[in-house]
Every structure is written in C-alpha cells, then in structure tokens.
Design goal:
The protein has 16 helices and 13 strands. The chain is of the alpha/beta class and about 400 residues long. It has two domains: about 10-220 and about 335-390, Crotonobetainyl-coa:carnitine coa-transferase, domain 1 (Rossmann fold); about 245-320, no CATH class. It has a six-stranded parallel β-sheet with strand order 3-2-1-4-5-6, sandwiched between helices. A three-stranded antiparallel β-sheet has the order 7-8-9, with helices on one face. The protein has a two-stranded antiparallel ribbon with strand order 10-11. A hairpin with a 5-residue loop joins β7 (about 240) and β8. It is elongated.
C-alpha cells in the first residue's frame, strides 16, 4: 500500500498484531465522523477500507481539529466525482469487490448519486450495506438537517443533568456520532455473521437520534417525562482544587463514602454528621453536601489531595488532558498510544490473547493517494486507468 509501513517495536510486529478483520473489504462512502469512526475501528482491526472521497476531499480535512487524521488512519483513499458519467463503472466494481459498504448522507442522496443499496446489492447480493443518518431512512423527520447536538437533544439525552448542582450540559465529545459509529460496527459484524450462515447480505438503517434515545433510555427507561436527579449522587461529581485542577469522584456505594470520610475526616469532621451517614441522607441533604465538598476540595491543590487519599480505597481521579492521560504509567503500561511516522494515535483500545490488539498500519492518506492502486485492484488496465484520468472524473485532486 502506498502509505503502508511497519510499526516500530517487537511487540508490534505484523505477525503479533491481532487483526481479526483481515480479509474483510469495506467501501466507505461516508464523510465527517460517524461513518469514518465505524470504519477506522474496522481498519484498526485489519479490514481493508477504501475511503471514497469527492475530488475536493472529505470536509473533515478542513476542520481545525485532528479528527480527520484520527478517524481515517489505515484506510486507502480514492477521490472521484460520483456524479461523473464514468463513475458508475467504478462504483459497480467497488460493489463487486466489497463485503461492506457504508454511507452517511441524508436519505435519498446515496440513491441519486448511484451508490444506494438497491444499486449495489443488485451487483453484489452478499453486500452488507449500512446507512447512517440523523433520523433514519423513514419517518417525518428523515430529511431534517442536524449534527451531534441536535441528535442528542432529539433523543432525550440532553435533558439529563450530569452534575448535582448544574443543569444539563453538552459533552466535549460528539457522543451521538461516536456511539452511532460503534453501533454501526456491531450491526455490520452481526450482519456478516448472518451472511456466513445464509449467504445473503443485509441493509442496515441506523439513526443517530435513535442512538441517543437508546443511551438515554438506559438510565430511566423511555417514559421519563420530568427532570430528575435519581441517576446522580452528590458525591459522584467533579470538584475544583486550590490550583484550578479538578478531581472526579466516583462515590456511589456506601463503602466508598466511608473510605472518603476515613481519608478526610480529620480535615472535615462535619462529614461524619449523621445526616450524611447513609445514601438517603446524603441525597436528601445533597445540595448542602455538594457545596461543603466543593469548599473542602478548594482548600488544597490536587496533588496534595491525592497524597491524602493514598492508602484509602477512594475512587478519585485528577481530570487530565489527553496528552497527560497517555503519559500516565497506566496508559503507558497498556501501550495505549502508538506513534507512526511522527503522528500519535490511540488505536482500538483492546488487548487480545495477552497482547495489544489492533494496529495503526499507516496514517490517514492524502486525498486520492491510492486512486491508481485501487483502480488496479478493481481490475482496470493501464490503458483504462489512463482513459479515466483523462475523463475528468478525478478533477480537483491535488497533484
């Protein structure tokens, strides 16, 4: 492959990497994040993913974050104008080549540009085809525009607060996008398993708003119709320290509360108040307790607090930036960060058979970097590839 290369270090030699999807072929017509996140998981696990981009490239390439590079490593890129008259033959050959196809357009767009399920499954009845859209392929909202925040709101996931004394806020992570991509992988692998038994492919219709609803329903079921703090604990929250850092406490069970009191009781004897002795009391006096804990933890810097907690079974963590997280002894021991050709990645986070699973085989490709190689793989002769280059189907690809 044009941008291939072996990872460094004996523990990452190719023969030792866990690549269970080696041999699975994926035609990825999706852009931005939900679909590419699904296919980068598959690429990390060994699948051959062809990223089909417009000649100007995926819009995510122009966003001021690392998202494109992180969500498209290990893929090959072909950049073609799918509306060009010559595109239908390329698409047909991709359909014959692929085990899986995935797209993330609004309903109807994939059909209009010749990459819909009907067109591809007519060529390859074994293809597993996944559509990722905001609201699904059917229903009155199917054509509504949106992004992650819209889908979280529409699915009820933005109504639930995450902090005892604060209203619901959005996460810094695009939760619906990432979970929908993960659900897509589960659905695709399920369909491939079914295909192994029946010989037939499948059409998968996955909605980001419905993904958000499925997450929200886990907490209280789908019939919650009022604001509640039943899913929260005043002791399971973030608290700022004297040096501006934040501590995350996971104090839910009674023994963890007792561990906290044992650790800080000499500094805050009022925490031994009988009102806080059990969970109903702590919840009933939650506003007062939350403010008291906030005052307490603002009195000392984070490192000092962590020394105080040492030796006590308190579930507490300092809130870290990603660059800090990957350098912790725990993440280093688990080999969570991989550097490849000068770029840092966190590949699929799994150990399998006692070794780090998955791999970063190469960094995200430039737009159309593998176009000629892919066309050759699809059976185009040298002359046919020259003719395609002269047709304008690749126009706007940088030299």
């Amino acid at each position: 492959m044009a941008q291939g290369g072996a990872l460094q270090g004996p523990e990452q030699r190719h023969e030792e990497r866990w690549l269970p999807l080696d041999g699975v072929r994926v035609a990825d017509f999706s852009l931005l994040l939900p679909g590419p996140f699904a296919t980068v998981i598959m690429a990390d696990l060994g699948a051959d993913v062809i990223k089909v981009e417009p000649p100007q490239g995926d819009f995510a390439r122009r966003m001021p974050v690392a998202m494109f590079r992180m969500a498209n490593r290990g893929k090959r890129s072909i950049a073609i104008d799918l509306k060009h008259r010559a595109a239908s033959d390329v698409v047909a050959r991709l359909a014959r080549w692929a085990d899986v196809a995935i797209e993330g357009f609004r309903p109807g767009v994939a059909d209009r540009i010749g990459i819909g399920y009907a067109a591809l499954s007519a060529i390859n009845t074994r293809i597993v085809y996944c559509s990722l859209s905001g609201y699904g392929q059917t229903g009155p909202d199917r054509l509504r525009p949106g992004h992650d925040l819209n889908y979280l709101a529409a699915g009820g996931a933005m109504a639930l607060p995450g902090h005892w004394l604060e209203p619901a806020k959005r996460s810094g992570l695009p939760v619906a996008d990432l979970v929908a991509g993960s659900y897509a992988v589960i659905a695709i692998l399920s369909a491939l398993q079914q295909r192994a038994r029946t010989g037939r492919g499948a059409y998968l219709d996955l909605s980001l708003a419905e993904t958000a609803l499925s997450l929200a329903a886990v907490r209280h079921g789908p019939m919650l119709d009022h604001l509640t703090r039943d899913h929260m604990y005043p002791t399971n929250d973030l608290f700022e320290t004297a040096d501006g850092k934040r501590l995350a406490f996971g104090i839910v069970e009674q023994h963890f509360w007792q561990a906290l009191v044992d650790a800080v009781g000499h500094l805050a004897p009022d925490l031994r108040d009988p009102r806080y002795a059990d969970e109903p009391g702590r919840r009933g006096h939650g506003d007062e307790l939350s403010r008291r804990l906030a005052d307490l933890f603002r009195s000392r810097p984070a490192a000092e607090w962590m020394e105080i907690f040492a030796g006590h079974d308190v579930p507490v963590s300092i809130v870290l930036m990603p660059a800090e997280a990957v350098e912790t002894p725990q993440m280093r021991a688990r080999k969570m960060m991989v550097e490849h050709d000068g770029e840092a990645h966190v590949p699929f986070p799994l150990w399998a058979n006692g070794a780090r699973g998955g791999a970063v085989r190469w960094n995200a490709p430039t737009t159309g970097a593998h176009t000629d190689e892919i066309l050759a793989d699809l059976g185009y002769s040298d002359g046919e590839r020259r003719d395609l280059r002269g047709s304008g189907i690749f126009d706007s690809i940088p030299a």
